[in-house]
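Dear colleague,

Following up on yesterday's call, I've attached the two folding results inline so they're easy to grep. Please treat them as preliminary; we haven't cross-checked anything against experimental data yet. The first protein's sequence and structure tokens come first.
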Amino acid sequence: MDTPGDPGGPAATQDVDRSDPAYRVWLKEAVRKVQADANRSADTHLLRFPLPAEWDIDLYLKDESTHPTGSLKHRLARSLFLHALCNGWIRPEAPVIEASSGSTAISEAYFARLVGVPFIAVMPRTTSPEKCRLIQFHGARCHFVDDPHTMYEEAAALAERTGGHYMDQFTYAERATDWRGNNNIAESVYQQLRRERHPEPAWIVATAGTGGTSATFARYVRYLQYDTRICVADPENSCFFDGWYDHDPLARSERGSRIEGIGRPRMEPSFLPGAVDRMMKVPDAASVAALHTLEEALGRKAGGSTGTGLWSALKIVAEMVAEGTPGSVVTLLCDPGERYLDKYYSDAWLAAEGLDVAPYDAVLTEFLTTGRWRG
């Protein structure tokens, strides 16, 4: 700090240097490790869902279940960690805390172990046991709440008590991702479609947990001046559809979503309603029926959010068939179904939840057989 000048001279310059060479060494290595993980990772596949050739319509699922942590949230967790590291929010030995329904926490636990910091996931007690096992596999701790509405406050309070950093995916998801490019999910989809017969999709269908994925797609297509429209599929017991429909940023849902990973009780800061062209409110039983259809078509089990998006994508395909409009539609395979064998693939769970899947199975079977969508 400068020494005082003469009494009648200029005031001394206040100068405080908080440089921390040891921290910068740690930070450079942490960022390198996260970027190296991305460099080692191959792109995820774009799977083609079989449709009758005479429709001249292609339906694709971007298979995000092949990431190292098994879900779409791997991309988000990488972006959140780089964002927080470069902002100076993550420090050696201080824990990172996140409010999550499971998949983001699995991916963040992976990156926390990669850079060598503790991680605590604040989750609803109803989170699937398999997700909890995977979080703990990566050396992290699960902290449960009985009321999903309290996750945010509990995560923030836990960060305060421990001197850690609350990652807050629901605020930072849309701003942590470089939506202009840099191999984000939207750029990846368009690169993979380049040699297809309909390379610019008519619709991209996403589901919303944070809203970050739909925001990335929507911004990217506008930035590059594509005509693609963005549809967000919302499950029961979520406020996103109502808030979007009513232009109500204060919309709330009293119950938690049964479709893990998507649907929220409040309008999250990362959900950008103005960037969304269309929304659908999908019955949970329809989401499960779509999982049956996916398994029959591709031999793959997937999580409930994939079913929500696939139901909406097939409904859009049905509209294109009725109009005689050729083109392509893209949706997401978000995570593997093996995490939910005791839920969406369990007859006992479906019965306990009062979900009758049969009518929706019939709608999908009739559509794929005749091209007619009933209901």
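Below is the second protein, in the same order (sequence, then structure):
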Amino acid sequence: MTGCWTLEPGRPATLTAPPVTDLADALAWLDTAHAELRAGLREHGAVYLRGLPVHGVDDFARVRDLLLPQPTPYREKATPRSDFGAGVYSSTDLPAAQAIAPHNENSYTLTFPGLLLFGCLTAPEEGGATPVADCRRVLRALPAHLVERMRTQGWLLRRAYSEHISTDWRSAFATDSPAEVERYCAENLISCAWDEDGNLRTAQLRPGIVRHPATGEEVWFNHLAFWSRWSLDEEIRDTLVEEFGHDGLPFDTAFGDGPPLTRDDLDAVRAAYEAATVRRAWEAGGLLLVDNVLAAHGRDPFRGDRRIVVAMGAPVDIAHCGPTVEPAAGAVRSHG
């Protein structure tokens, strides 16, 4: 049995499965199509799969076990997710009206998933696509001065964990022990400090341009724009700055030599992502396999019930990606 490839402008490469009788039949076909699927991923960065009988979490987990046999833990959590067990999570539990900007999953960790598998159990009435952007194209579309700064300086992520305005440190690090958090941070090149209220602040320097470990292609790989202060709603940003100061924002980014991203920088990065983005409306049972180094992903706002699950696998060490800047701990700023 062979599948049918469809390539359309503005949409991800799509592979439609041949007619199958049940999930066991579908898994047998996926096993034979594995090499073809991987080749499609290398070329396009993401592949949408249609025609498979994936109706629930258990079905999705069985497909995941075939396509992503080596799981990647979800580290340094940043957004709310529901855990369905066996390494299957909701894609995100953020409000339906909120768009999620393109990003590479866990680009700020030293080990991150090489592959992501999304599955649609319930398609929304309207919107809600998971857009993907080819990060090779993003890099080529960016202004030369931003590329040069990232290539030579990397990017700096600062986070302030709080139960009231962001992810709290217990959820982010999956522990109730400050000592365990400090141990993790020391092992993973993250500076950390506690304020008088017991809240945590961290800072980490990471490369923002890397090479794909298999193809050697250079890509734009970071959360520089995603977590910039300018990505916050203006009213929310002004309120947070007034309450907590510029150094107390839940997250903020800068180039590695210190200067924060400007509004113009953010606009340029967003334009590069948009030019490289493709999307397809979800269908119940649809799957999206994403090479997390070659492609960034996001989420469109939606209306109606939407149930998208995700699994992460094929872990990659940043050291194997030819980083242009070596990861290091950053400087944690004091409150004020």
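For the second protein, one point worth flagging: The first helix runs from residue 23 to 32.

Best wishes,
A.L.
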